Amino acid sequence: TSAGAATSASSFFFARGLAAFFSFGAASSPSAAAFWASRVAAFAFALGKPHWKSLPIWGAGARQEVLARCRLMFANKFLGTAQAHTPPILISLILDTTSVAVYDVLVRLPRFAKSVLGLMNAAVLPVASRLEAAADSPGLSRLNRVGLITVAAISLPPLAAGAVFSKELLSWWISETFAEYWIWQSVMFLVPALTVLVGYGATSLLTRARAIFVMNKIMLVQLVLHLTISLSMVGQWKECAFIFGQVTATGATFLVQMKFIGHEHNFANSDFHPLLAGSACIGLLVGVSFALNIQRVVSSPPTLVVAVAVWCTLAWTVAFFSMLSASQRHRLLQEARA
Predict the structure, then answer these.
(1) Quick one: CA dihedral 179, 112, 84, 257, positive or negative?
(2) pLDDT, position 51
(3) Which of 7, 31, 86, 274 has the most CB atoms less than 10 A away?
């Protein structure tokens, strides 16, 4: 459309304008002038569209509700950002830049896994909003109960595989120098494992302002606990103290968050039994893997890929039978064949 073309053109001129501004100064930046001209033209074009004239004017109540929800979401995003980016800043101030690099390497793969697996949670919000608007409480509860178990069955095996083969991943990905820190990366995989479960249950609660407020308070307690534990242990474990603090804080608040999510979705205690059984089976598989030292089969990057793939397949099989009921397994197989 014309408006889209104007927006794209203005973005191009904005980039050109920034480059010219920092290179030659604002006075010799015709691209910057073109950017502002295109922005004004796009705004004037949008005002001239007839559908804008038919939009109702918001009342004071609607504005207050929108602003209240914006404040809650801003606090939620701020707390999440602070938890991710405060440790490197504190490490650089307390220790040195080398410690920052070590910390960044150890948390890189767990954070990547958290971001990728978190994409599964994006699909639940539109469906949950529709069910919430229709006041379909049983449907919403069923969506979250089945979805939570499915997300756990999909996401926990690869995260557990990352913990099992942590030393080999660091050796072949970075160097043998970082392999001595493998235990900290292995422990760090607990954070995305717990966060992806909380994230799925909390995403469908974004339509409820009170639920967002409560989750924000829990996140604030988690952040304070994370930094307090980390700073108290930094003299002993240096940059790894911040990994210990985050894992401890995430684990300490996990049960509180899941209890609140279960209460909001009307879960019975038995609804969590498949999740607990599957998590215990995968945890047992991790323990057996370390006890048998299966990592010794890895001798090169290709063998590492094969070992991780085989381990994930075995863990997914365990999750398939321990987390899903017979009817859920039958339905999943039908969907896979279709």
Answers:
(1) negative
(2) 52
(3) 274
What pLDDT is recorded for position 35? 52
The SS3 of residue 43 is helix
Closest by Cα among 323, 327, 328 to 277: 323
Cβ atoms of 146 and 127 closer than 8 Å: no
DSSP letter string over 80-120? HHHHHHHHHHHHHHHS-HHHHHHHHHHHHHHHHHHHHHHGG
Kindly give the parts of the chain with pLDDT less than 50.
1-7, 9-10, 13-15, 17-28, 52-53
Q: Is 155 exposed, middle or buried (0-12, 13-18, 19+ CB in 10 A)?
A: buried
Question: How would DSSP label each residue in 139-168?
Answer: HHHHHHHHHHHHHHHHHHHHHHHHHHTHHH
Q: Are 164 and 295 in contact (CB under 8 A)?
A: yes
Please list, residue by residue across 125-143, b when 16 or more beta carbons sit within 10 angstroms of its beta carbon and e when fewer do.
eeebeebbeeeeeeebbeb
| 176 backbone dihedrals φ, ψ, rounded to 5° | -65, -20
Residue 306 corresponds to which tokens in the numbers above?
A: 């094969």
Q: Residue 70 has what pLDDT? A: 86
- pLDDT for 68 equals 85
Closest CA to 219 of 87, 82, 66: 82
Cα–Cα distance for residue pair 184/188, rounded to 1 Å: 6
**Ramachandran assignment for 238, one of left (phi > 0), alpha (psi -120 to 50 degrees), beta (any other):** left
Distance CA 297, CA 235 (A): 37
Q: CA-CA distance, 290 to 150, in Å (whole number)?
A: 26
CA 181 centroid distance within chain: 24
Instruction: Please report the pLDDT score of residue 324 as a whole number.
Output: 79
How far apart CA 330 and CA 322 sit, in angstroms, is: 14
Q: What is the per-residue pLDDT for 46?
A: 53
Residue 325 DSSP SS3:
coil
